[in-house]
Amino acid sequence: xxxxxxxxxxxxxxxxxxxxxxxxxxxxxxxxxxxxxxxxxxxxxxxxxxxxxxxxxxxxxxxxxxxxxxxxxxxxxxxxxxxxxxxxxxxxxxxxxxxxxxxxxxxxxxxxxxxxxxxxxxxxxxxxxxxxxxxxxxxxxxxxxxxxxxxxxxxxxxxxxxxxxxxxxxxxxxxxxxxxxxxxxxxxxxxxxxxxxxxxxxxxxxxxxxxxxxxxxxxxxxxxxxxxxxxxxxxxxxxxxxxxxxxxxxxxxxxxxxxxxxxxxxxxxxxxxxxxxxxxxxxxxxxxxxxxxxxxxxxxxxxxxxxxxxxxxxxxxxxxxxxxxxxxxxxxxxxxxxxxxxxxx
Length: 345
Fold this sequence. Notes:
This protein is of the alpha/beta class. The chain has helices at residues 16-19, 40-49, 71-74, 92-105, 119-126, 175-183, 185-189, 193-196, 206-209, 215-231, 248-251, 255-273, 301-310, 331-344, and strands at residues 7-9, 35-37, 80-85, 111-115, 151-158, 161-171, 199-204, 240-245, 279-284.
C-alpha cells in the first residue's frame, strides 16, 4: 500500500479517508479506479504563490533619491552625474528645476523627456515659480543643510534617434555645505561625490556680480570652492568643469559694470585651472528670469544641457591624443586604444 501519497475516492460509501481501507478491496490504493491523488494542498500552494501580493512591484516614491537608491539606476546604464557647486542662493536648484520645466513644454535642446524616478522631487522645486503658487515673483526653495545628500533623476532620448537613451543624476547639495567645504579640507574631502562627477558645475551668483558691494565676495566664494576642490584632489586632470554665471537677466541690466568684471573672472579660472583640468567651459544662463524681463525662460540652458548629456571624461569621444607607453610591444598594451577606436568608428 502506498503511504507517502494521499488519495480521495469518488465512491460515496468508501471510508478511505477515515479508515484507509479501500471499499473495492485494493491493497494498493493507486490501482483502484475510483481513487485519485489528492492535489488540494498543491493547488493551495500554487494559488498562494500566485497571490496578488506576490505580483506587486515596489515603486519609488517619486521624491529625491538617496545615494543607495541611485544604485538601481547606475547599475543598469552609463549614467551621467552632474554636480553643481556654489554659495547659498546662487541659483543651483533653480537651474535644475528649469531644465525639468523646459521638457514640460516641448522637446528641449534636441532631446525628449523619457522618464524620471524623481518627478515629485522636481515638482516640489518647480511649484514656487508657477502661477499656482500665488507668488508675485518666481522663487525656488533652496536646499538646506541636512537634506542635501539627495539626487534628482532624469532620462532623455535624442529627438533624432529614439534608440539613444541617457540617464542623468543631478546632485542637490546645499550652498552652506559648499561654504563649509571652501573653508575646510576635511569638509571638502567629505564631498566624495565630486570625484565621480561627469561634470562639475561651479555656479556664480549673477545678481551679486551685478552689485558693486557684493561682486567681490561672490567671486571670492567661487575661487575658494574651486581652489579647495583642486587642492584636495576632488577635481583634477580628468575633470570636466563648467563655470556658470547665473541670473543673466539681472547682470545684463548692469552691462557697463559687468562687461569688464566677468572677463576678469574668466581670466582667473583660465590662468589658474585650464591646465589642471581636462576641460573648462563658461556659460551664461537665466534659468528663471524675473517677470517682465526680455530674457527668455531657460536662457543659455540649451547650450549647457547637451554638453552634460553628450560628453563625459569617462567616455571621451576621441583618442587622437591618446599615446600609451607600448615600448615593450605587447599586444595587450595596444588593446585599449584599438578597441575604443573600433567602437567609435
